[in-house]
Specification:
The two termini are 32 Å apart. The protein is globular and about 65 Å long. The protein is an alpha/beta fold. It contains 18 helices and twelve strands. Helix 9 crosses helix 10. The strands form two sheets. Strands 9-8-7-6-10-11-12 form a seven-stranded mixed β-sheet, with helices on both faces. The chain has three domains: 57 residues, no CATH class; 132 residues, Leucine Dehydrogenase, chain A, domain 1 (Rossmann fold, 3-Layer(aba) Sandwich); 164 residues, 3-Layer(aba) Sandwich (Rossmann fold), CATH 3.40.50. This is Glutamate dehydrogenase. Homohexamer. Keywords: Oxidoreductase. Belongs to the Glu/Leu/Phe/Val dehydrogenases family.
Length: 457
């Protein structure tokens, strides 16, 4: 365990206060970004107290500012022949340990603040995987919902026509995120190859396996979240067997978190989409959810038409009022606030595993810790997706293709390693059992040491 003096702790705290104050002055209009930065940098206080050379190198000032922010116009033609205009973004945050790596999100809520928060978190998440990949994120305020395949194709082609200037297999490798699945990745990849006049498989991940993608990629984030929680449960001699589980969302992360939890013996009783949530006391029928969401691209409320014993409720926040042993928020940022966290605790929740990016507010996280709830923070628990994206990059580089079982085994080992490294870092710096601080420190140290070794960049 690291021994830190009171004086060095005070110096480090003052340093972080100064950096964050300046950041707030410049970015007061970016609340999600400031939330993500605050959650991470104050947990690094013992690191700066122990290693003052990081302060002398202005590491914090450097790491909170992205290396590059790209913002561009995306013009495309809808089915009526009218030109539509959206905003596109790519924030290339850190390349200290590898090429930029992070998903693309297509959703009306996308703005620079959200992309920056996601990109900042991605630095540490990618570092935790142990793979040589830096942090980035991108996307657009384009909404794929209600659009025809042809409209989505034209938008993706227009988006890639602008984005291709800034990416490449050894420069920046995007992937999917909310609103960007295999269909969108295919359109983006095809346009990139047409522009480049070459087949560069490693330029984007999340591709279908038949043209360079990895098996187990769509399952990876959901499976990885459950694998991480599985390691946590061992600490309290508990398993998923015979537990009641709530999983918010019904996209890839949620569907495959449900699948893996059910495989491990859990009864998943609720899931949701952006309109509302379903509750099935007998356990969610995953085949029905997959049919509705993956095949029919429908809404989750259609589930109750096929399973009359289930109920549907408009609005999403009520899902956290359902009693459960394990809650897996897998939908979007800030979906659990302080009030929802208190309701979960009152109803007996034992474990929170974050499958989405920053799904809990800072106030909700405080409720977890105040009540000794086992908490798996997003940057550790949902790193499975980017871990398998890195494995896809490896397969593309080797012109090789691993079986589903091989990729799943590698994913499982990566998640176990992330858990161990987070536990060890928390213990080393005096916060034993706090995986939030442990994950932040473990992810930061690798990037920080690389930045110091490479000089001022």
């Amino acid at each position: 365990m690291v021994t830190i003096t009171t004086e060095s702790q005070q110096i480090a705290t003052q340093y972080i206060d100064d950096v964050f104050s300046k950041l707030k002055a410049h970015h007061s209009h970016e609340p999600e970004f400031l939330q993500a930065v605050k959650e991470i940098i104050y947990s690094l206080t013992p690191v700066f107290a122990k290693r003052p050379e990081y302060m002398q190198a202005s590491l914090l000032e450097r790491i909170v500012e992205p290396e590059r922010v790209v913002k561009f116009r995306v013009s495309w033609v809808d089915e009526s022949g009218k030109v539509q205009v959206n905003r596109g973004y790519r924030v290339q945050y850190s390349s200290a340990i590898g090429p930029y790596k992070g998903g693309l999100r297509f959703h009306p809520s996308v703005n620079e603040s959200i992309i920056k928060f996601l990109g900042f978190e991605q630095i540490f998440k990618n570092s935790l995987t142990g793979q040589p990949i830096g942090g980035a994120k991108g996307g657009s305020d384009f909404d794929p919902k209600g659009k025809s395949d042809a409209e989505i194709m034209r938008f993706c082609q227009a988006f890639m026509t602008e984005l291709h200037k800034y990416i490449g297999p050894d420069v920046d490798v995007p992937a999917g995120d909310i609103g960007v699945g295999a269909r969108e990745i295919g359109f983006l990849f095809g346009q990139y190859n047409r522009i480049r006049g070459a087949y560069e498989a490693g330029v984007i991940t999340g591709k279908l396996p038949r043209f360079g993608g990895s098996l187990a990629r769509k399952e990876a984030t959901g499976y990885g979240t459950v694998y991480f929680v599985q390691e946590m449960l061992k600490e309290i001699d508990m398993t998923f067997q015979d537990t009641n589980v709530i999983v918010s969302g019904s996209g890839n992360v949620s569907v495959y978190a449900i699948e893996k939890a059910q495989q491990l013996g859990a009864k998943v009783v609720a899931c949701s989409d952006s309109n509302g949530y379903i509750f099935d006391p007998t356990g969610i029928n995953l085949d029905t959810v997959k049919q509705i969401k993956e095949v029919e691209h429908g809404r989750i409320k259609e589930y109750v038409e096929r399973h009359p014993g289930a109920t549907y409720t408009d609005g999403c926040s009520g899902i956290w009022s359902i009693p459960c042993d394990i809650a897996l928020p897998c939908a979007t940022q800030n979906e659990i606030d302080e009030e929802s966290a208190k309701v979960l605790v009152a109803n007996g929740v034992k474990v929170i595993g974050e499958g989405a990016n920053m799904p809990s507010t800072l106030q909700a996280i405080k409720v977890y810790f105040d009540n000794n709830i086992l908490f798996a923070p997003a940057k550790a628990a949902n790193a499975g997706g980017v871990a398998v994206s890195a494995l896809e990059m490896s397969q593309n580089s080797m012109r090789h293709f691993w079986s589903f079982e091989e990729v799943d085994e590698k994913l499982h080992e990566i998640m176990k390693s992330i858990y161990k490294n987070s536990v060890d870092a928390a213990k080393e710096f005096g916060y034993e059992g706090n995986l939030l601080i442990g994950a932040n420190i473990a992810g930061f140290l690798k990037v920080a040491d690389a930045m110091v070794a490479q000089g001022v960049i």
